Structure formats: C-alpha cells, structure tokens
Amino acid sequence: MTELAAAPASTPAIEQANTFADLHLAPEILAAINAMGYSTPTPIQSQAIPLVLAARDLLAQAQTGTGKTAAFALPLLHRLRGFANTSTSPARHPVRALVLTPTRELAIQVHDSVVAYGKNLPLRSTVVYGGAGMQEQTAALRQGVEVLVATPGRLLDHAGSKVVNLSQVQFLVLDEADRMLDMGFLPDLKRILELLPKQRQTLLFSATFSDDILRLSGQFLHDPQKVEVARRNTAAETVEQVGYRVPEAEKLDALLRIVKQRGLTQAIVFTRTKLTADKLGRQLQKRGVSAAIIHGDKAQVERITALEGFKKGEIQLLVATDIAARGLDIAELPAVFNYELPYHAEDYVHRIGRTGRAGASGLAVSLIGKEEEKLLSGVERFIQRSLPIDTLPEAARPVAREPRSEPRAASPMPRPAADPMPAPEQPDALPNPGYKRGQKAAVCALFMPSPRSSS
Ligand code: AMP
Predict the structure, then answer these.
(1) Is 46 in the pocket of ligand 1 (CB under 6 A)?
(2) Cα separation, 39 vs 62, whole angstroms
(3) 54, 200, 335, 452: which could form a disulfide with 363 (CB 3.0–4.6 Å)?
(4) Ligand 1 contact via 68 beta carbon (within 6 Å)
(5) Protein residue whose Cα sits closest to atom 12 of ligand 1
(6) Per-residue pLDDT tens over the stretch 153-212
(7) Cα separation of 450 and 455, whole Å?
(8) How far is the CA of 133 from the centre of ligand 1 (A)?
(9) What is the pTM of this model?
(10) Ligand 1 mean position to 51 CA, how many Å?
C-alpha cells in the first residue's frame, strides 16, 4: 500500500476554452452538446477535457453543479468513439469505461448524461445499482456495453456471478469519491480495482481533497494531474451567514419569524435526523405552511414529488436531512436554515452551498440550541471564522395607527394610539413562494445513497 501520496502537481496553466469546438471534440459529440443547449464549457470542463483527451489520470476537485459529469463523459465518449459499432455480438461490446458512483440516483443521473452526450454514437451503455432487481440489469450487461455506470456493491454482485467482465476496462471514473469513502465503499473499491487492468486511465472526482482522497489517489492513480475549480460556493463568499441562539422548543417560531422578516420566498431547512425532519415538516404543515419533507426513508416517488413542488414554487420550505439534500442543485435558492447544526462540520459547508450560487447572494441561518454549542465551535473551526450571532426579530406587532392628517371629527372618546393587544401573530403567512420573473429554480438532481447492503 502506498503511504499518503504527495499532492500531485497542479494543472499547468491551461488556456480557458471559450467554446466546445476549442476542445476538439468529435462532431457527433458537439452536436449532442448543442442539442443540450450548452454554449460554453464550464471551468471544470475546459480544464479537465484536454487532460482526459491527452490520456492523463486526473484528480479533480469539483462539486455537483459545476458540470463535472460532462467534464469526464464528453472526453471519454470522444476517446471511445473508435470502438462504436453496430454489431449484435456481445463480444464486440466489452466494458471499456466504468463509472462508479456512491448512490443510485447519481448513477442514474450520470447514465442519463452519457446517453444524452453519446446519442449520435453507436456506443452502448447501461447503469446498475442496488435496491433494484438484478434481472433487467443482467440482461443489459449480457448484451454487452462499452460504458457501464454502477454503484460499487451491485457491480461486485454482477461481477461475482460472471455477468460482467471488467478485464477490458480502459477508463475508470470514481465520481464523488469522497462520498464513496464516507459511505464505507473503500473495501468494495479495492475489490473492483483488482478486476481491472493495471493499464488504464483513472479519473477521480471529489468535492474535497482530504487526506483519505489523496491516499486513494496515491493507490489508484498514476501520476495524476490535479484540477481544482473554485467551489461554486464556499462558506466565505456570497452567502450571508448568521446564527441565532434559540431553545429547541422555540425553533419553529424562530424559523417562521425569520422567514417572514427576511421575506424569503423559499428555503431548505436542514435537520440532523429523519425524525426531526418528519416532526418539523408536520408542524409546518399544521401551521399552514406549504412544506415538504425529504429524507432517506421516503420513497423515490415522494422525494420526486416534493422536489417538483419545490421547483415549481408550490413548496416554500423543503425540510431535508443532509444525505437527502446532497446533490440537490437548485438555482437561485434564497436561503438555507440549519434547524439543527450538523454533526460533521463539513456538512455545514455542503448545506450552505445550496444557496448563493453563481454569484447570487444567499442566506444561511443557523438556529443554535443549548445543546449545540460544541457543534457550533466545530463549524467555526472548520470555516475558520466565527459565526455572527444575531437577536431574533420581534414577533409581529401591529403597526401603530398613523395620526390622521385631516382634522379630527369631534369625538367623545379619545382614540388609542395603538391597539393595546398585539394582533395574533401570523408567522405562517409567508411571502409569496413564486419565483420572481427571470428567477429560476432548477432542480437538476436528487441523489440519495443506495442502502449500503443492497448497493
Ligand atoms: P453536474 O455538475 O455534472 O451535475 O452538472 C450540473 C448541471 O449543469 C447539469 O444539469 C448539466 O446538464 C448542466 N451543464 C453541464 N455543463 C454545462 C455547460 N457547459 N453549459 C450549461 N449547462 C451545463
């Protein structure tokens, strides 16, 4: 085993490609990109594509939403196009590119992209993941595919029953490698690596370059080029971060009050557990707020319905656990709430990265309970700054009546300056959820981890 690898050399200055044509991709691929409506490559694409075309191993730091899928899929398809053939013989379609992802949702998403980008090439592809029947996947694999997208556990199941042979894999992509490690896939990855030829090109994509990722890179990659794109959202940039110290029992009111005070049209509200997500979601719904809940125990159809509702602006508050929200790509989301601070400080950055995208301003509000001071310190250490703490906005009070300018009619009773009783608070009357003109909420993907046992 290689010890912790030295950080690979950074990418030499690469000229930024302004168009996809500058990247010298095959016309069939350019036509597909055109059909997708992409006009210019994203930074990760203009950096990674030339390196992949030049047969380099790649250690790429890029989060979901940066265009990372096309960054590996386009050059892979370009390099595989010579193998495209219309033969019906499975032997003519060995697996040549293997893409491993931590979750079935990401696997499906990546495969959809491969199909879209490769639609003008007679290359075959399929996707296999846990939590679904083996039969259909087996049938697709037996026919032969050049590109296979898979979650690790299910791939090993198929490899174990000799349904798939990986001895001709030339390209390996580890997508969201940090997630795969977090989810305990390292042993599976090692077993898969043993089934692949040593001579191959390996591309590793990860949101972070942790020591574990560098170690993995040292084991699996050969002299990789390092590519980093600025995270679209880092804790320090466009997101306004603020904390409120709120006892647990008052968090619901605090949340509604802040939403109202800030005039927030929509927000994701993060909880640590599925239990809190369920409870909070129900409380919000009871108070007349259009809220939906997504977490790992929700059926796929429920998650999709919730997201669609959120995308359309019908849902104002989407209550989510960390894992459920991973990969959610929502353009111009005005705010996120940490209803509970995460156990892992890194998740704080993932959470707040859902807002303030593409230079738009965003707001991240943390409601800090009495028991959460330690978690707050962890977050502050991680983001290397202290979180500004604000005081809660007052509960809504009626505005004192303006004194009339016209002469008052003689009245036997003096009129009070303001109602002595505050009007009942209406925290649930939230601002209109509809997006402003020109504002779009695009839900690009929802990635849920496959249950480890069945992945
Ligand atoms: P990804 O980071 O791969 O999940 O991609 C995020 C989203 O960006 C997906 O919806 C892609 O279809 C889209 N996308 C990828 N590349 C481009 C591009 N060059 N121009 C516009 N959209 C893109």
Answers:
(1) no
(2) 20
(3) 335
(4) yes
(5) 67
(6) 999 999 999 999 999 999 999 999 998 998 899 999 999 999 999 999 999 999 888 888
(7) 5
(8) 30
(9) 0.58
(10) 19
Cβ(108)–Cβ(449) below 8 Å: no
Q: Which domains, from first to last, does the chain contain? A: 20-228 (3.40.50.300), 239-383 (3.40.50.300)
State both tokens at 4. Answer: 């912790």
Per-residue pLDDT of 37-53, as tens digits, reads: 888 888 899 999 999 99
Nearest Cα residue to atom 21 of ligand 1: 38
Can you give the C-alpha Rg of the chain in angstroms? 26
| Ligand 1 nearest-atom number relative to CA 113 | 12
66 within ligand 1 shell (Cβ under 6 A): yes
CA 339 to ligand 1 centroid distance, Å: 30
Question: What is the number of H-type helices and E-type strands within the chain?
Answer: 15, 14
Q: CB of 42 closer than 6 A to ligand 1?
A: yes
Provide the 3-class DSSP secondary structure of residue 335.
strand
Q: Is 380 helix (H, G, I), strand (E, B) or coil?
A: helix
**What separation in Å is there between the alpha carbon of 353 and the centre of ligand 1?**
17
Closest C-alpha to 322, from 304, 301, 336, 308? 336
231 lines ligand 1 (CB under 6 A): no
SS (H, E, C) 183-201: CCCHHHHHHHHHCCCCCCE
Side chain identity at residue 364, one-letter code: A
Strands ordered across the beta sheet of 239-245: 291-294, 317-321, 267-271, 335-338, 362-368, 239-245, 389-390
Name the residue at shortest CA distance from atom 19 of ligand 1.
41
Nearest to 372 by CA among 352, 391, 389: 389
Nearest to 207 by CA among 174, 233, 231, 240: 231
Structure tokens at 385: 């700054």
- Please give the distance, rounded to the nearest whole angstrom, from the Cα atom of residue 146 to the centre of ligand 1: 23
Probe residue for ligand 1, chosen from 36, 40, 76 as the CB with the greatest number of ligand atoms within 8 Å: 36
- CA 273/CA 270 separation, integer angstroms: 9
Report the atom number in ligand 1 closest to the C-alpha of 110.
3
Nearest ligand 1 atom to alpha carbon 66: 2
For 29, residues 6+ apart whose C-beta sits below 8 A from its C-beta are 74, 77, 78, 81, 117, 118, 120, 121
> If DSSP states are collapsed to H, E and C, what string results for 18-30?
CCCHHHCCCHHHH
Higher per-residue confidence, 240 vs 66: 240
Give the count of beta carbons closer than 10 Å to the beta carbon of residue 305. 15
